[in-house]
């Protein structure tokens, strides 16, 4: 029974990590209609910014804030300098550019920060809580991760449903010409979408790095699982991305705990194929929106 509980709790925390990254993908998709494959190295770069600040003696929370701020700036700059020139062309051009950014950012990070593994601190304890004399697989940092993801999800839902800015961002992503005729400053909305997505991605990078080792490729595997989580829930749904992350995290935790860790990638592929076969738009996406 204890193993079952610990496996489920491990999957819960892992699922929230995947959900954090999936939320960044959902945000960039809803605001620009681009799947950003460079989201992981962007988050990695900002995590190293936080590590530089922390190693300089300024504390975890100042490094945390520096990472989020640098993510906001990095997203805006990349949209303006790299993605904006491809605006108006085939949509695949922007996707190819994000793949190029994936490679470039890895190379730049390796040159600037080095390739060695470095320890990244956590703001809360990594020892599991004790319940009835038994240590369970949930710790302070895990609770912080869960709360952070839920707060971000709520903020994104509120942004797109209840604010004029969210409505303008969606309009700019769906039909730029019509949006311009309605007075929407499309360029500003696209830049804002990239900036906010990079900020959420930076949070995901910090949550993944907490209490573990980081290097320029530490986020690479998260690209796959985060993308699967986003597709499971539907790329248009923040709530769906969180539920997709939870489904994926718990499922893979049970596969790893009871079958074998070597089958985790295969299990993720099987889950993705099953959902795409039964509901191609994802669990929470609306078909008319997914065809845009």
UniProtKB/TrEMBL annotation:
- State a single Pfam family of this protein: BPD_transp_2
- Keyword set, alphabetical order: Amino-acid transport, Cell membrane, Membrane, Transmembrane, Transmembrane helix, Transport
**Predominant subcellular localization, coarse grouping:** membrane
The residue ranges crossing the membrane are 6-27, 34-54, 60-82, 94-116, 136-160, 190-211, 217-235, 266-287
The yes or no answer to whether the keyword Transmembrane helix is present is yes
Q: Lipid biosynthesis: is it a keyword of this entry?
A: no
Record's subcellular location: Cell membrane
Q: Topology in the membrane?
A: Multi-pass membrane protein
Task: Give the InterPro entries listed for this entry.
Answer: ABC_transp_permease (IPR001851), BCAA_transport_permease (IPR052157)
Q: What family is this protein classified in?
A: Belongs to the binding-protein-dependent transport system permease family. LivHM subfamily.
Its name, as the record gives it, is Branched-chain amino acid ABC transporter permease
Q: Specify the species.
A: Nocardioides renjunii
């Amino acid at each position: 029974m204890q193993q079952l509980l610990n496996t489920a709790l491990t999957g819960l925390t892992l699922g929230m990590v995947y959900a954090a990254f999936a939320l960044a993908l959902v945000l960039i998709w809803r605001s620009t209609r681009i799947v950003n494959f460079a989201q992981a190295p962007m988050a990695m770069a900002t995590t190293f910014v936080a590590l530089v600040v922390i190693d300089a003696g300024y504390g975890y929370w100042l490094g945390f804030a520096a990472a989020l701020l640098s993510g906001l700036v990095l997203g805006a700059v990349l949209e303006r300098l790299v993605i904006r020139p491809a605006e108006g062309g085939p949509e695949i051009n922007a996707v190819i550019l994000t793949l190029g950014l994936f490679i470039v950012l890895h190379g730049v990070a390796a040159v600037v920060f080095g390739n060695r593994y470095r320890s990244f601190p956590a703001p809360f304890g990594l020892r599991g809580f004790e319940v009835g004399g038994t240590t369970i697989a949930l710790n302070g940092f895990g609770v912080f991760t869960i709360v952070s993801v839920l707060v971000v999800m709520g903020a994104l839902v509120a942004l797109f449903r209840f604010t004029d800015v969210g409505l303008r961002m969606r309009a700019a992503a769906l039909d730029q010409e019509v949006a311009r005729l309605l007075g929407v400053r499309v360029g500003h909305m696209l830049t804002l979408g990239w900036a906010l997505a990079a900020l959420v991605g930076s949070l995901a990078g910090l949550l993944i790095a907490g209490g573990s080792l980081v290097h320029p490729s530490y986020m690479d595997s998260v690209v796959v699982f985060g993308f699967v989580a986003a597709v499971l829930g539907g790329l248009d749904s923040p709530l769906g991305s969180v539920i997709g992350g939870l489904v994926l995290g718990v499922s893979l935790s049970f596969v790893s705990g009871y079958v074998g860790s070597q089958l985790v990638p295969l299990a993720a592929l099987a889950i993705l194929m099953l959902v795409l076969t039964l509901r191609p738009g994802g669990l929470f996406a609306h078909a008319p929106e997914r065809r845009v």
